[in-house]
Amino acid sequence: MTATAAKQIFDPAMLAGQSALVTGGGTGIGRAIALQLAACGARVAVAGRRIEPLQETVNLIQGAGGVALPVSTDIREPEQVEEMVSTVATEFGRIEILVNNAGGQFAAPSREISVRGMHAVSRLNLEATWDVTRAVALDSMIDRGGGRILFITLAIQRGLPGLMPGVATRAAVHSITRQLGTEWARHGIGVVSLAAGHVLTDGLRGYPPEVIERLETTVPAGRLAGPEEVAATAAFLVSPAADYITGTVVDIDGGKSNWGDTYMVDRETT
User: Fold this and answer.
1) What is the pLDDT of residue 2?
2) In whole angstroms, how far apart are CA 217 and each of 158, 163, 204, 258?
C-alpha cells in the first residue's frame, strides 16, 4: 500500500481532535506512522534523540497542512521521559494515542552476549518503553477518557539466531500488551502490539541488493513491506474502528511467520 492508496481508504478526519506521540518518529517506520496519523487528522508529537530527523518529519507534516511537534528525548532517561510527556500534554492538552516505536538491537551469537549487552537492549526495548507507556497512561489516559497504545515490535514466532536480546525483549513487550489489555480495558485504554516482518526502510536499502533479494524469497507475499503499509495498519489499530481490539499481537509480515525464516542456524558460532 502506498501513501496515495492510504489517502483513498482513510477519512482525513478519522483522528481529528486527537493528539498522538510517536517515539522514534524521526526516521523509517516511526516517520511513516507519524505522517499517516497526521494525514488522518491527528496532531502529532515525534520524539527521538536527534532533533534533525525529528524536524524533518515535522516539516513534512506541516508542509501537508498538519500540526506537529518535535521533542528531543532519550527515552532511556526517566527525567527526559517525564519532561517529554509534560511538553506534549502542555502543547496538545493530553495524549490520546501513544505509538511506542523506538527500539534497537545488535547481532551476535547468544553465547557472546554479556549481561551489559543484554541490559543495553533491555533498557531501550523494555524498560524505557514501559516508562513511556506508564507516564503517558498516568498523565493522559487513566481516568482521563482512555486512549490507544500501540507497540511496534517484531514478528517472532520463531527463534532468530543471533538476535536473542531483541527477540527476548520484544517477547516481553508482547506479554505486557496482553497484561495491559486485560488490566486497562476498564479505563477505556486499548493496547496492541504490531509485529512487523521485514520492512524496506532506508536502512535496509543500504544493504547489497542480493541481501534484499534473499529476504524476499522467504516471504510468501514475494516482497518486503513498505513503511507506509505498516503505518496504514498502525493508523487502523489506533482508530475508532479498532476499539474492540486489545491485548493482542497483530502480525504484518506477508505470511512469513507461517512459512519459514531467513536466518539459518550457524552450528559453528551459535
Assistant:
1) 61
2) 17, 20, 16, 14
- Give the residue among 137, 151, 246, 235 at the shortest CA–CA distance from 190: 246
Of the candidates 149, 141, 133, the one whose C-alpha atom is nearest the C-alpha of residue 181 is 149
Residue 52 in domain: yes
Query: Does residue 6 sit within a domain?
Result: no
CB 66 within 8 Å of CB 20: no
**Residue-wise DSSP of 103-153:** -------GGG--HHHHHHHHIIIIIIHHHHHHHHIIIIITTTT-EEEEEEE
Distances (CA, A) of 173 to 35, 103, 147, 270: 24, 11, 18, 25
Q: Which range (22-31, 83-92, 95-104, 158-167) has the least confidence? A: 158-167
Gap between the Cα atoms of 235 and 10, Å rounded: 9
10 Å Cβ neighbour count for 86? Answer: 12
SS3 label, residue 190: strand
Residue 266 lies in a domain: no
Would you say residue 165 has pLDDT above 90?
no
Q: How many domains does the chain have?
A: 1
Residue 158 belongs to domain spanning: 12-255
Please state, in angstroms and rounded to a whole number, the distance separating the CA atoms of residues 252 and 269.
30
Residue with grid cell 502542555, as numbered in its chain = 90
Task: Count Cβ atoms within 10 A of the Cβ of residue 226 and give its class: 0-12 exposed, 13-18 middle, 19 or more buried.
Answer: middle
- The confidence band for 181, taking pLDDT boundaries of 50, 70 and 90, is very high
The answer to whether position 267 is within a domain reads: no
Per-residue burial over 143-156, b = 16 or more CB atoms within 10 Å of its CB, e = otherwise: ebebbbbbbbbbbb
Task: Identify any residues that bridge with 149 across adjacent strands, giving them in sequence order.
Answer: 98, 191
